[in-house]
């Protein structure tokens, strides 16, 4: 089994705010991330798939095709968007890096061809903050 990773990038704005709480509690829990003026991040998205390399091509999967799938189903929906307001698959969810990684998995998994397995979504919110999701 070989693990193949494609890195993509998007910029997006968000706010960490739980509508079930008042402003004081949101500020106590989320600090400056609850600011109503939103804030943005330069996200780096690493998508890892796994399979045995094809005997004829030597590829686990063509990374150009993987990039097209990621862009079509994920990054084009997220890039330069407000995660809280503009992104259908984040509606009603807290826009944490954790939840975003889970939802990205759900968007991508149905489009990974048979015989190739989605292994990991690694999502950097900042150069110092990232999550990894393995679909469990
Ligand atoms: N578990 C999580 N905690 C936090 C998340 C998250 O998604 N999951 N997100 C945030 C905010 O989005 C916040 O903006 C993070 O960025 P930043 O404040 O820049 O983070 P740093 O601590 O690296 O910034 P410094 O420059 O070091 O202050 C918060 N928590």
UniProtKB/TrEMBL annotation:
Keywords for the protein's UniProt record, in alphabetical order: Lyase, Metal-binding, Zinc
Pathway: Purine metabolism; 7-cyano-7-deazaguanine biosynthesis
Stored Gene3D superfamilies: 6-pyruvoyl tetrahydropterin synthase/QueD
Required cofactor names: Zn(2+)
EC number: 4.1.2.50
InterPro entries listed in its UniProt record: 6-PTP_synth/QueD, 6-PTP_synth/QueD_sf
Any Pfam family hit: PTPS
Domain of life: Bacteria
Catalytic activity: 7,8-dihydroneopterin 3'-triphosphate + H2O = 6-carboxy-5,6,7,8-tetrahydropterin + triphosphate + acetaldehyde + 2 H(+)
Family as reported in the entry's similarity comment: Belongs to the PTPS family. QueD subfamily.
Name this polypeptide is given: 6-carboxy-5,6,7,8-tetrahydropterin synthase
């Amino acid at each position: 089994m070989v693990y193949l990773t494609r890195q993509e990038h998007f910029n997006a704005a968000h706010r960490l705010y739980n509508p079930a709480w008042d402003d004081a509690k949101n500020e106590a829990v989320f600090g400056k991330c609850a600011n109503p003026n939103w804030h943005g991040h330069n996200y780096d998205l690493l998508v890892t798939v796994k399979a045995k390399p094809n005997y004829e091509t030597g590829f686990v999967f063509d990374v150009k095709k993987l990039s097209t799938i990621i862009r079509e189903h994920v990054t084009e929906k997220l890039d330069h968007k407000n995660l809280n307001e503009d992104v259908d698959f984040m509606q009603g969810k807290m826009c944490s890096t954790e939840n975003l990684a889970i939802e990205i998995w759900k968007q991508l998994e149905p489009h990974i061809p048979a015989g190739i397995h989605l292994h990991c979504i690694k999502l950097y919110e900042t150069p110092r903050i990232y999550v990894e999701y393995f679909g469990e």
